[in-house]
Design a protein that fits this description.
- This protein has 136 residues and is of the alpha+beta class.
- The protein has a single domain, classed as 2-Layer Sandwich (Alpha-D-Glucose-1,6-Bisphosphate, Chain A, domain 4), CATH 3.30.530.
- Helices cover 26% and strands 41% of the residues.
- The chain is built from three helices and seven strands.
- A seven-stranded antiparallel sheet has the order 1-2-7-6-5-4-3.
- The longest helix has 20 residues.
- The protein is globular.
């Protein structure tokens, strides 16, 4: 697993966390977009509520809106946990690494320096949960 945190002018801080999984891209996307997969990386939500330009609220209090979806490539959404004051942007990208799926969570748009470690830890935890689900 790799992580990176930097500050970008006008966009605040950004964090990236990635991992190469022992499944192919197609299997990874099938998992990520299943109700079980969405519950792992986003939160509990009806699959019908996860559509482009439709606001959502998970049972954990995460709110947002999916803005970009490119099948077998990436998606982008506005995202805000219930304890935050403003939205940030999450890009979830899946790429091919010699037949295995590399998953990258890239988050931008948070301005408090204290959030860097919080978000790095959060996304590392999500990656670990994904790995647990995919290796059952």
């Amino acid at each position: 697993m790799t992580t990176e945190t930097i500050k970008v002018k006008d966009l605040g801080f950004q964090v990236s966390v990635s991992k190469v999984f022992s499944v192919n891209i197609e299997k990874m996307w099938k998992f990520l977009l299943s109700e079980e997969g969405i519950a792992v990386w986003l939160g509990k939500i009806s699959i019908d509520d996860f559509e482009i330009q439709k606001a959502f609220l998970t049972s954990e209090g995460i709110e947002g809106k999916l803005s970009v979806f490119v099948p077998n490539c990436h998606l982008r959404l506005k995202w805000k946990p219930k304890h935050w004051q403003r939205l940030s942007t999450i890009e979830l990208r899946v790429t091919n690494r010699k037949g295995r799926a590399s998953v990258i969570f890239h988050q931008t748009g948070f301005f408090e320096i204290e959030k860097r470690e919080e978000m790095r830890t959060y996304w590392k935890g999500i990656i670990s949960k994904m790995n647990d689900e995919l290796t059952k």
